[in-house]
Structures are given as C-alpha cells and as structure tokens.
Amino acid sequence: MSDYTPTEVMTVSAARALSNDDVCFVGIGAPSAACNLARLTHAPDITLIYESGTIGTRPDVLPLSIGDGELAETSLTTVAVPEIFRYWLQGGRITVGFLGAAQMDRYGNINTTVIGPYGAPAVRLPGGGGAPEIASSCGRVFITMRHSPRALVERVDFVTSLGFGVTGTERAALGIATRGPALAITDLCVMEPDPETNELVVTSLHPGATRAGVAEATGWDVRFAAALGETAPPTEPELATLRDLHRRTNAAHAVSP
Amino acid sequence: MSDYTPTEVMTVSAARALSNDDVCFVGIGAPSAACNLARLTHAPDITLIYESGTIGTRPDVLPLSIGDGELAETSLTTVAVPEIFRYWLQGGRITVGFLGAAQMDRYGNINTTVIGPYGAPAVRLPGGGGAPEIASSCGRVFITMRHSPRALVERVDFVTSLGFGVTGTERAALGIATRGPALAITDLCVMEPDPETNELVVTSLHPGATRAGVAEATGWDVRFAAALGETAPPTEPELATLRDLHRRTNAAHAVSP
Amino acid sequence: MPDFVSLPDAVAATVRDGHTVALEGFTHLIPFAAGHEIIRQGRRDLTLIRMTPDLIYDQMIGAGCARRVVFSWGGNPGVGSLHRFRDAVENGWPHPIEIEEHSHAAMANAWAAGAAGLPFASFRGYLGTDLPSVNPRIATVTCPFTGEELAAVPAHRPDVSIIHAQRADRAGNVLIEGIVGVQKEAVLAAEVAVVTVEEIVDDLAAPSMNSTVLPGWAIDTIVAAPGGSWPSYTHGYSHRDNAYYKAWDEISRDRARFQQWLAESVMAAT
Amino acid sequence: MPDFVSLPDAVAATVRDGHTVALEGFTHLIPFAAGHEIIRQGRRDLTLIRMTPDLIYDQMIGAGCARRVVFSWGGNPGVGSLHRFRDAVENGWPHPIEIEEHSHAAMANAWAAGAAGLPFASFRGYLGTDLPSVNPRIATVTCPFTGEELAAVPAHRPDVSIIHAQRADRAGNVLIEGIVGVQKEAVLAAEVAVVTVEEIVDDLAAPSMNSTVLPGWAIDTIVAAPGGSWPSYTHGYSHRDNAYYKAWDEISRDRARFQQWLAESVMAAT
Fold it and tell me: Cβ of C129 and A171 within 8 Å?
C-alpha cells in the first residue's frame, strides 16, 4: 500500500513512538490524531490527558478544540483546569508532551508566539497556551510539524517553549530534570537529539524522502545520523484505523449539531 | 421558664447573634449547637460551613466530629479541604467564625495550644486547627467559652489565634482588615470590644449572673459597659429546639452504628 | 441571594466602560450571549481576561470593546487564527489594543490565586522562555526552604466575571458539569459575578454531593439564557457547533464581512 | 497499574523504619486497618503526617511507632484529649516524640503544594500568632507585586501515603466520595501511594465524570480492606462509630489499659 500522504506518515510515526505505559498531554491536530491512533492500535491502555481537564479520555471522534464534549464524556475523570496544570502537569506525572511549532531551531526551541518583533509582529501567532510548561514538566517532548525552511529555522524569532536552549546546554543550566525534545517528527523525517550536543539530527527518513530534500527543507545546516534509518511505511491496519478516525471526525465536524 | 443551664444561655445567646445572611465557619461543640439552633429558629437560610469541606450543610443531628457523614449528606456541596481553606476562608467569604478557647485574654487573644511552656507543657492542648486563620480571615469572630479565672486570664500562655494583640492595636498594625473578636459569650455574660481600646468589656449579664460573680471569675480586672444589659432568658421555643437537637444528637452518638 | 434579571439588565447593571471583565469557559460553557449583549450595549475600553480568547473575544475585539487583552492562547482551536484579534494586534484595527500574554499554567494559577484572595500565584513555569522579557507582570519568588526560584504572576481580580452554566435553582445555587475549566475560580475571583444558565429549576439535581455547585450567596446575578453558550456548548444541553467555528474563519477574515455579520447577527438581534 | 495485594504485604513492601508516612482522611475515610498493620509489623521512628492525628495516630504513638508528628489539631474531636499523644509529649511515654505543629490552613496548603510538585506553599496565615516562633518550618515570602508578606511552609512529600476509599476497579482506578478531605493530595504528594478500599469492583460506578477519581497509574498498591476505616467511616458503606470515639477516652487514658487494648485488639488480631 503506497497510497498515503506525508502527514499520514508523520502521524503514524508519532503514534508508534508511544507505548501502553505512556501518559500523554495531548495537543490539538496531529498530536491528537497520533495519540488516539496509538490507543486504537498497539497501545490500548495509553493514558490521554487534555489540558481542558479530561484524564484518561477515549474519544471516538477527534476533538476540534481541546475541550469538546466527547473528551469529558469518555474520560475516566474530568478535573478543573488549575488542577490539571498543578497536580498533573507540574506534578511531574506526564511522560510525553506533544508540541507543534510555527518555528523550531536545531535545539528544539519552539516559537508559537510571533513572526517578527514581538511589539510589531509580521504575524501574530496564537501564543504559548500550555506549551511553555509542557516543555519543561513532561518527561519527554515529542514535536510534530511540517518540514519547511521557514519552519525549521536557524534561530526562532521568539522562544515560546524551551528545547535545549540557544546553545543546547541551557536546559541543564536551568536545573530542569526532564529530558526535553526527544523526538521531532516532520512529514519528511524523524529527528532526535545528539546525545553529546543535543542538536536535533535526522535519524530516519520517511519513505520517498531524501537527504537532499530534507537538507533543502531545513533552515539550518542539518546533520544526519551515521546510522540513518528509513521509516517503515504505514501498515494497512494503521492507515485504515487512522482514516476511519478522520472519516468519523470529519463527518461529525461538518454539520452543526 | 427558669429551668435552663448556663450553657444553654450561652448557646442561645450565640445563636441570637447570627442572622439569615451570615456565612458561618463552624467549630465543634457549642458553636455547632449555636449555629444550628439559629438555623432551626430565626435564621433558616443561614449558611453553615464546616472545615471538613461541607458548604451549606443542614444536619438533623449535631456532628460529634467536624466531618461526620451527616454534614456531607445534607450539604449543598462538599469540596476538598484545601479548597475550603483557600477559596472560602482565605477568600474572605465567611462573615462569622466561631472559636472556643482554653485561655483568652482581655484583647480576645486565644490559646488552644499549651498550658505552660511550649517545649515542656503542663498540659498539651489539641492545638490551633483552623483557628489561626479563622481569627484573621473571617469578617467577625465570636468566642464561646466557660467563664473561669483559669480560662479568662491576664495573659495567655501561647497566642494560637490573634484577637486584638497584646496591646489591643496589633491587629491593625499587621494590616488585618477584618474586625476580629466581636463577641465573647460565656456562661455568665456577653463581652464586646471597647470601640476605643478593643478591650473586651461586659455588655450583658446572663440571668442570675452578677458583677461580682463575673469579676471573680475573670483573671483580669474586668470592666463593665456603662449601659450594662441583661441577657434575655431563653424562650420556650429556643429551649425546646435546642433540647430536641441535643436529644437527637445524644441518641445518635450513644450507640455504635 | 443573587438577583434574577434579564441579560440586558444584567449587563447594563454590571459592566462599565473601562472595567476589567472576564467571560470564561474552557471550550465548554463560553458565555457568547453575554458577550454579544456587551457589544450591543457599546461598552468600550474593557480589559478582557480569558485563557483562550476564542471567537467570543475575537467578536468583542472586532466590535471595538477592548482596550487590553490578558490571555494565554489566542487562536480558533483546530481551525487557525482569530482574524479580528490579529487585525487589532498587527494593524491596530478597529483601534490598537494592548496585550498581556501568559501561559495557560500562569493563567490557571492566577485564577486560583484570585479565588483564594491571594495577591499572586507562584508556580514552576516560563523556564527558558522569552515571555518574561515581554511581560512585566511575570516575576519570580524564591522558595525560603530550597532556594528554588519560581515564576510569579499577579492574581486575576476582575471587576466582573461572567460565566455560563447548566442551571440554577430558585435560591441561585448554580450547577456546573463536564469540563469545569476555571468557571468556579472566575466567579470567586471577581468583584461581581454574573452567571447565565440554560434553565432555572426547582431542584438543582446535582448528581453528587461533590458536584461543582456555586452557592447563590457567592453570585450576584443570575440570567436565564438558554442556548447562551452557542456556538460553544453546554454539556447535557447542546453540542459544540464545530461547523460554525470553521465558518467563522471566513466570516472574520475580512473587515467588511465581519461588520456585516456584526450588524446582522449581533446588533440586529436581541 | 497498581499491585493488588493483602494488607500485610502492602505494609511490608512499602513502610520502612524511619520513613515519613501519612495516613490521611479528614474524619471520614481514616485508614485504621492500615495503621494497625503498621503497629503489628513493629515499625519504628516514623515521621507521621496528618492534619488531625485522631485516634489512629494516638494508637500508633502509644504503640511506639512515631519519632515525630507533623499535625495541626491533636484532639479526640468532640470528646477531648488524645491521651497517648499527650503522654508522649508531656511525659515522653513510651518515648519522647518531636512535634512539628501547623494550622489546618498550612497543612492543607502543604498537601496541595506536595501534589503540585512545588517545594513550598504560600498563604495568608499565622498572622499575629506564636506558632512561627516555635516552628522553624514556618517562613515568609513577599509578593513581588504588592509587597505583602505571606506565610510559607514546605510542601508535604511523604515517602508513603496511605488512604482509604470507597472502591477500586480492576485497573486500580479509585473512587472517593463525600468528605474528600486531602485524600487526593496525599496520594499525589507521596513517593509511594497505598489505597485501601471497601471493595474491588468491575465498574467504578462514579456518579459523575467530575467525581473524585484517582487513576490507577497514579497509585502503587491497592488493598481490599472492607471496614478498614472503622471507627471512622466510609460514606455509602458505614457510619462513624461515635460511641467508640467516646469509649476511646477511657481506653487510652491509662497506660496499662491502653496496652491491654493494644495486645487484644491489634496485636492479636489479623
């Protein structure tokens, strides 16, 4: 089955990185799809937490927003938003936090605030939301984003969420004990931090992607791991499950209730 | 009807000082009896909050402890204990807090911690519980206690809960905006703070009590208000309601469930 | 006991030009009807607090109600931008607005501190981010026991908070179910609290003694506003109108189209 | 998922001499069965945290388990003194104990801070009282915005917390109803959390999605201990045995009478 999109590869790759024992703080969009795909395939007991306060939620349809009714109705329990951020996120109970990014640099620092100067932005982005503390409080951070030289940049215009800092060493210097960006999955490849320098290096190319293509689509002089892998293509069950999920979701979101 | 006890006069007097609009933080013992007597007589809509987390509770039987099941079952809502102390008490929503005391001085400073030195106590009392913050966060504080020279003392051995401070001026000096001890009701009399000095002065004698008797039972050189009143004796409905409440309570507490 | 009044009367009595106002609700229970009434009554120079400005503040900003927005995530969730919010920030239309930008953790903690009567909230946050450099209302405190430096933000204490909830009883006690968000905190942190509800009932019918119930004496005004959360939703009464959230992208993208919508869907409505 | 084991196995696997241990429950849900098992296993030098030591710590102190007690109200509620606690503090019997004394507000905030992974809690408290002068673990922090000085206490972070709850399902998710106290905070603040329950069921049957439910993955050990809260109570399963609380006054007043009770009612029981 070769008929799949780069976004599908990205989502499937992210899903595969999750296990039954993970407790995920889930963002909207690709992360939500990846987490629920994992739950519907190889990780049925994975715990999904949405920042709206739903713990252990098992939605049949992906939410459009972070607080759709489906999330509460299928949750083990739904708590107040201050509690989610204090007891569950800051309390250190989340193993994996998912982040998206408008810009990311080689050390996994993320910008979702502004393009251009903060006081006179060319583009005002939505802002940090839960991301600044997800980045520091979750055991590991997974980043999913489209691969383009405007998105994977030499230097982010604004650090909304800390990766490894501007030199790759700031995380430790700030006394942050969590791992930080452990995996960046784009529509072209998988990147992981170099164990020595924390620079994100390409560790696996998605089917059809090339070194040259990735290098061209990256705003910094991207490095490739010595043992560069190739991402296994989505399996038929993975694709079928993901597409069913999207089909149900699109049908549910298309019409006013 | 002259057949009533000094404790009954104390409880009835405390109940009368409460209104329908009050939100009371209720302690165990005499305060609980007074608050529920008020609710069962002239103040049916009074709000009673117990520090165990029960808000708007309407027990049919007085609790023995501060968290008996009756309190939750008859509550409007029951919240976690951190919330009670943060959102409701510290949040400034309580109009009247009730305190008891092992020792109280002329400025309404209260000791429920130790008799004797803290490090080598003659008597180790239960301690502060909710009282230290009830004393500062409630709009007004009502104190109920037995009148004796060992209880109403020149100087408390330990300040568990602030009244007006050792000179009567410390409350304002600490920037505390709440009123503090507004009423002390013993089994002999009612005391209220002098508007100028904040010293508790006797404003009403209970039926049968005398100036000489009160002076003898007070450990400091107690003063009497110029317009010294006499406490109206308990009415028949007040006494009947209070005794019914105690009868139900004693029956409920006498046997193991 | 709170007053039971109409929505126009509630807004007229509580919201003044220059006020700091919060219309909260996390995806769920967003008080759109109240926001539209504030637009209709022409309020100006408001400081608007919300974790997620959402369509409701996009509409109020586009209508010119806002002078300042205090927020942590300003997008149309799952759809894209808040075009009216962006137009105000990027181009000063209909007039420039100030922003005070936080993270969700900071906003949630600031709500809890406001409800608790504290002047500030401390939490482990903003580590290594640029937000403290652009927001002077992000400070630090040091733990007196461990020496750890923590982030600190001022408590939210709005003049008026407005929330939507499932129902109130005749004494004004209010039940909130489902995603409870920061609804309780917004009410308890405010000088004046207004609650719009789907219905006013004889019996609140809370499913448990531990249900989220706000006592009537902690609320100033109750308004019966059935459907008052649309296109957000009220658990047990309605579903989120996700199609409308998607349609808003087109309505809000263009100033003229937005103004047409405003005239037809808000100003002409009652 | 937590381990499902017997009470002796749970205590043997989790509670060590010298540990800081909390058996919480505010009047309601006090884990007496677990406390008795700790006594039977002869644990020593424990630091015991509880807002209200109650009969359970009176018994553990009298049995010689405690080196230090962290508390805010040490009485037999509505009855009088905790005689074993007093005997230890006043007379050093069976051996001297240290005390760390707080107010309820401080303890509740310290639990919330522990659950939240913070090093300390700040609150408006202890104003004008003598407690800070006898407890070095009461400090202050200053609001960076208003200059107000607030009280600060270290977060509770016990090695082991043990609570009692209504029921668990087969995945170890736990439902708590009624007076929820600081049960959730005690579990989340601890290194290791043990929950004793009235029953283990197929369906938790929580009355609402907003019910207090602790996920199984946040708990280490579940123990079926029906009646394990007696003479405290479990809402929906039992009533508080107020007559026993009154009877404890006589049992505990005298050392020999207490030791007889200990031998017959704890050591000889299983």
Answer: no
